[in-house]
Amino acid sequence: MSEPDRSWRNRTVLGYSLASLLSDASHEMATAVLPLFLKNLGFGAAVLGLIEGVADVVNSAAKWVAGSLGQRTRRKKMLTAAAYAVTTACVGAFAFVTRVVPFLLLRCVAWAARGFRGPLRDSLIAASTDPSHYGKAYGLERAGDMAGAVIGPLAAVALLAAGTSLKGIFLWTLVPGLAAALAVVLLVREQAVDVTALRQRPLRPSLPPGYWAFLGAVLLFGMGDFSRTFLIFEAAGRLPAGATGALVSVPVLLYVGHNLVSGLSTLPAGALADRWSYGRTLLLGYGLGSAFNLGLAFLPAGIGWLVPLFVISGVYIAIEETVEKATAARMIPEVARSYALGLLATANAVGDLVSSVLTGFLLDHLGRAWAYGAAGAFSVAGFLTLAVVVRRSPDGDLGGSDGQPIKPR
After folding, report:
1. What's phi and psi for 210, nearest 5 deg?
2. What is the mean pLDDT of residues 310-334?
3. CATH number for the 11-392 domain, one of 1.20.1250.20, 1.10.230.10, 3.40.50.970, 2.40.40.20?
């Protein structure tokens, strides 16, 4: 097989960017109507938090498994394609659910497949791209993801306006979801590898202390980074009592605006990290995330305040999701990168679990000041920890470990 193009515009990056766009359009069509679906079943924020939290448990486990298996597998492309297809099938099957338990099972399988594909995809993107372009490569993939997050809710709104039922919307998610799997099969290229050398790689290679400290900051910040589904739930809760007609679409449209801002910010965030500083760019994102959570907790409860807060959220998520992965790929050599990316994804998933369950519980029992205030406390702790890690990094910018080769345990 010929040597792949090392530019960040290569076929592998473009293929996964298109797959992310299509898959997230599918997922977000369902997410946009999910709170309405759960409300129709008679469930509140605590149930939403429980569902999101349990799904995040299996998601994090799948990411850890994928990171370890990715150390030795040479079929990452087809595994990711299959995972896209499984996620799509499970989301489409929401159409036939009327109780919590079947919904929870489908959500868990979908999120397990979604988690499993992440480290394998991110490893292939890094392998196809020159390290000087990691920020832009991951930024483009995240831009595709966020473009799908704009298209999906808009499609859901259009389908609702056309009289489509919630069940019908879930079935429509199959179209872009299966197209995502096809995009991986047709566009992504996987490098030829030395099978003998690949099989000799450790499943759990030793990682430098600096990387573990970085993961600690990621975990702390993630514990305040609750599911974006709560944004729709929060906006819906701020509508006037008895709202009907166009007002009912406001929460979804706000969510679309949030995702549009995030999509437009991902590539600039990656380019900024490549050109300026990985550590400082990520600190900027963590600082904005902290401000967003504290703003939700303590600013007045009018729906108008959500507009600037949603903009801040869109920017910080773009920075967080792009620069965290680019930083991990930069810090760890290729021989251990799959495992390192798996751990990064797992840390984020565990943080999401804690935040989703805690936020849902506190919203139902103590109110938004406690719920989002607690999230803000974790965000600030993650920011401060990252600041220490950046300051102590050998190059002052979350660079490589210590210049020593990665050794197996």
Report:
1. -60, -30
2. 90
3. 1.20.1250.20
